[in-house]
Amino acid sequence: DHVLDVGCSVGVVMFPTEADTVIDVVRSADIALYEAKKRQRGSYFVFTPQMRELANERLSLEKGLRHALQKDQLSLFFQPQVDGTGQQVGAEALIRWNNPAQGFISPLKFIRVAEETGLINPIGDWVMQKSLLALADWLQKDVPFSGNLAINVSTWQFARPDFVRNTQQLISQSGVPPERVTLEVTESALMADVQEVVNKLNQLRDFGVKIALDDFGTGYSSLAYLRDLPLDALKIDKSFVDEVAANPHQPLVESMIAIGKHMQLKVVAEGVETQQQLIHLKAMGCHFYQGYLFSKALPKADFEKWLQKNQVLRNIDQHLR
Ligand code: C2E
Ligand code: MG
Ligand code: MG
Questions:
Q1: How far is the CA of 212 from the centre of ligand 3 (A)?
Q2: Taking Cα atoms as reference points, which of 206, 256, 250 lies closest to residue 235?
């Protein structure tokens, strides 16, 4: 009873010049198809030999990633978030892949491969479990961890029909109060069916977890759409924060902070690297900050040391006041 609009994209490969075995032909055509889809829906792309190198790199990434989980090559780092006085108010969990052959591989590179191959599901669950384990440990051990631990959620994870139930289950099992957990989603995760997205977000928030919109301003969502979403925090992307260093007068960043405030959201600036940026962002009314100025993402033990130091500074600060 529904009208379906079907479109198609095409990947083209010349053979036997560019590929000579069946597997090669199919794989090369697939690579070209992927490129076509990436550029524009409903278009075609012709495979070129230069793409083979990229494809091989991607394939080895994919193969490696399949084993990364079993071989214990993934780890979780933590980056503090602070308020305008430098006091820790939260943290973000960030995944790292230590590949024996290639060293540390950036999540910017491998998360996409994980998404394309479906590996994002087990990896996402692993990130969630590890993050909750760390948080539970800090709450039990009396490590001076304030605020929430933010966990990145891929668009594909969020789209899973069982995402809410799965998340609730993992949090309940961990014994961590849901109120101490923030899920970071990007605009693309929220661009699906509005009603379904709103339902999911409401269920998660009713359970207690907080929702932050990551990389705000880099996606294609409209403000009218954002207005209807139940969110708790906005994270201003580093690309905008970078601009603040060059020129403190940034109407766009000011407006983004103002939008967050009007929507009653906490505003977090990402990628703050200099004192100057901090001063300007503070003047614009930003609430929280994350960036190398305070700390890079650290392994768990180093992050705990950072927390201890931050607490000492906090005590001194209070004493002086
Ligand atoms: P994101 O969630 O926006 O995370 C912030 C990124 O900015 C992190 O990069 C962090 O290390 C980096 N960063 C923070 N402050 C600074 C700074 O002052 N200077 C510079 N140059 N960089 C800064 P990272 O860890 O490489 O992660 C990149 C992206 O990969 C993340 O962006 C997120 O989208 C994705 N990602 C990382 N961990 C996970 C994960 O566990 N699950 C999923 N689904 N995605 C993840
Ligand atoms: Mg994030
Ligand atoms: Mg971000």
A1: 10
A2: 256
Non-local CB neighbours of 272 within 8 Å, separated by 6+ positions: 241, 278, 281, 289, 290, 291, 292, 293, 294
Q: Is 32 in the pocket of ligand 1 (CB under 6 A)?
A: no
Does the beta carbon of 186 lie inside 6 Å of ligand 1? Answer: no
Using the mean position of ligand 2's atoms as its centre, give its distance from the Cα of residue 183 in Å: 9
What does each of the 321 residues of the chain score in pLDDT, given as a tens digit? 888 888 899 999 999 988 889 998 998 999 899 889 888 878 999 999 888 888 788 888 888 999 998 899 999 999 999 999 999 999 999 999 998 888 899 999 999 999 988 999 999 999 999 999 999 999 999 899 999 999 999 999 999 999 999 999 999 999 999 999 999 999 888 887 888 999 999 999 999 999 999 999 888 777 877 888 999 999 999 999 999 988 888 899 999 999 999 999 999 999 999 999 999 999 999 999 999 999 999 999 999 999 999 998 888 877 777
